[in-house]
Each structure stands twice: as structure tokens, then as C-alpha cells.
Specification:
With 339 residues, this protein is α/β, with parallel strands linked by helices. The chain has eight helices and 16 strands. Strand 10, helix 5 and strand 11 form a beta-alpha-beta unit. The strands form four sheets. Strands 1-2-4-3 form a four-stranded mixed β-sheet, covered by helices on one side.
């Protein structure tokens, strides 16, 4: 049985999610100790619990220590069963991160699957729904499987209540290389908000983002007022669509965070990506490693490598023996390759 120190590297929930997915794919059981030991609230939180429960459900897995606050779990052997599943985080915990846990195992199954996941769709510390559909899934589908995703209801922090639906048509994963992003085709963005009055907060967010993006125009960033019962909440997404890749940068409202800071931070991050020649942004890079490892290898260029990505590479090595290489790629950033 593989033993993992959950406090090493990035030390967060990503270790749990990748380990569960890799265990279901490789048939290797594992134990994780010291789960999130360095965090303000160590141990399993609700969204981590839901992600592991989802992995157990699709794999018929018996998991010891599966309770809130637990700092150790033992994930035993199982066999993936495709089908219809519903998973509810119960808070604003990320629906996207629950999907991340089960997507690759179900994409390798022998029949299609349909998922309903309820929780947060646009909240900090996790990719928004737009990132999954525009940035990650188009690359994943180039590897073989077909995945369609729909948002039925938005979910902001702290209320949650969002709902996404996913259909997975499985296929063996094939190796791909993503080195060139190609020419810029389109820039667009959206500020979505609910139960925030007359929309002035959304306008301030857009104005601040545009100040950090001198080549963008106001008409490129739309403002959408959602039904009041889906709030309160506000989120900004910025999309830069290239020939072979689309980067999605986001910002989310929370208590004590000004509209100006939300817009400026997201705008600067997008400006940084556009100025680079890299294929993948900082949040796509660690999500590409898992399917590429399962596919037998792959490569992509990316901006500065994050601790999340290095931790994901370490977990992948434990389950598959594959090595992740990081090489200087000049103006394209870093060449990340799995061998």
C-alpha cells in the first residue's frame, strides 16, 4: 500500500483528489496521513469529504477515516462502475474539484456516465465552471473522451447551492503535446452578480480590470445580473482564446475585498499570461498532469511552475513511476513533460 504524507509539498486537498483518481485508475490502494496538517483548519473539510465520497461511490471503495476533521484515511481497492451519480457538497465547496476527482476514472470506463454535482461554482481557491468548460475540457477531449458540461444554477461563497451536470463518453486517453498556443482569436469577459443592488459593484470590477488590460475594450466584458435567489455573490471571468488554447482568469467577491482589487488582480494576471508565450496558465498546468500521466506521457509549455504542480508530479510518480521534467523554454516559460 502506498503511504503519503499529506503535509508535504502543497499540503492541501489536491493531494487527496489526485491520489483517489490515480488509485482508481491503477488499482493501487493508499494511506494518507497528516492531511492538510499545515492549514488553519487541518484535516478533511466538507468539499474534501465529498470528493473522496464520490471516488468511493464510483469505485465501490471502502475508505477508513472518512469523516470531517479526519487527518488520516485508508483508501482500499475498488473497481470503477460507470452510471448516473449525484454528489452534493452541501456548502460552497467546489463542484469543479469534485469533478476533477472522478473525471479520469470515469473517462476510462466501458460505458458513459452522467453526473450531477451541487455546491459552489464560482468561489475562491478553486477553478470556476467557466475554466472547466473553456480551458480544461477542450484539451482533455483532444486526448479522446467526450465530455459535455452544463451549469444549471450558480453557487457563490458562502451559500453555495450551485448545480452542474456532466456527461462523459469514455475513451482510452492518448498522448498529446501542447507547446504552441497559436494566434490570439478573441478576448471576452463577464461579471456575473446576484443580490447586489443596482450593479455598480459589477461596473467597478469591470472598470478596474480594464485599467490593467490596456488592449481590451469595455464592450469585451459583459455584465450579467442573475436571479436574486442565486446570490448574494459576484464573480469576474476573463477569457483569452487562442488557436489551440483558451486561458480563463477569474476573481470572486468576498467580505472585505474591494471591487477594485477583484478587477485589478484578475486583469494583471491575464495581462501576464498574454505577455508570455506559454500554452498553459498557472491553474491549467497541474490539471493537465493527471490525464497525461494516465495517457502514457505528454508535454506542454506553461508559465512559472507552481507548488501545486510539483506536488501533483510527486503523487503521480508514487502511483505510476512516471517522472515529470521541468525545462526552460525561453519566452514560452517552462516545458513540462511526463516520461
Amino acid at each position: 500500500m502506498i503511504t503519503i504524507d499529506g503535509s508535504e509539498g502543497e499540503g492541501g486537498g489536491q493531494v487527496l483528489r489526485n491520489a483517489c483518481a490515480l488509485s482508481l485508475v491503477t488499482g493501487e490502494p493508499f494511506t494518507i496521513e497528516k492531511i492538510r496538517a499545515g492549514r488553519d483548519q487541518p484535516g478533511l473539510m466538507r468539499q474534501h469529504l465529498t470528493a473522496i465520497e464520490a471516488a468511493c461511490a464510483i469505485g465501490g471503495v471502502d475508505c477508513e477515516g472518512l469523516q470531517l476533521g479526519s487527518n488520516r484515511i485508508v483508501f482500499k481497492l475498488g473497481a470503477v462502475t460507470p452510471g448516473d451519480y449525484r454528489f452534493a457538497v452541501g456548502t460552497a465547496g467546489s463542484t469543479a474539484l469534485v469533478l476533477q476527482t472522478v473525471l479520469v476514472p470515469l473517462a476510462l470506463a466501458d460505458k458513459p456516465s452522467h453526473l450531477v454535482i451541487e455546491g459552489g461554482t464560482h468561489a475562491s481557491m478553486a477553478p470556476p465552471f467557466d475554466f472547466i468548460t473553456k480551458c480544461f475540457l477542450p484539451i482533455f477531449e483532444r486526448m479522446g473522451p467526450h465530455v459535455s458540461a452544463r451549469i444549471k444554477r450558480y453557487g457563490f461563497f458562502p451559500r453555495g447551492g450551485g448545480r452542474i451536470e456532466i456527461d462523459i463518453d469514455p475513451s482510452p486517453l492518448r498522448r498529446i503535446e501542447c507547446v504552441e498556443r497559436g494566434e490570439l482569436r478573441e478576448r471576452s469577459g463577464m461579471v456575473i452578480h446576484a443580490s447586489l443592488g443596482d450593479g455598480k459593484v459589477a461596473q467597478r470590477i469591470r472598470k478596474s480590470a480594464l485599467k490593467a488590460l490596456p488592449e481590451w475594450e469595455e464592450a469585451m466584458i459583459a455584465i450579467r445580473d442573475l436571479p436574486a435567489d442565486q446570490g448574494p455573490g459576484v464573480a469576474l471571468t476573463l477569457d483569452a482564446a487562442y488557436e489551440h488554447a483558451t486561458e480563463v482568469v477569474s476573481g470572486f467577491g468576498k467580505l472585505g475585498l474591494s471591487a477594485e482589487r477583484i478587477g485589478t488582480t484578475a486583469g494583471k494576471r491575464m495581462a501576464g499570461y498574454e505577455a508570455s508565450g506559454a500554452f498553459a496558465g498557472p491553474y491549467l498546468q497541474d490539471q493537465l498532469l493527471l490525464p497525461m500521466a494516465v495517457a502514457g506521457g505528454g508535454a506542454f509549455t506553461s508559465v512559472k511552475v507552481s507548488q501545486h504542480t510539483r506536488t501533483a508530479a510527486d503523487i503521480i510518480a508514487k502511483f505510476t513511476g512516471r517522472t515529470t521534467r521541468f525545462e526552460d523554454a525561453g519566452h514560452k516559460g517552462t516545458l513540462v513533460s511526463l516520461v
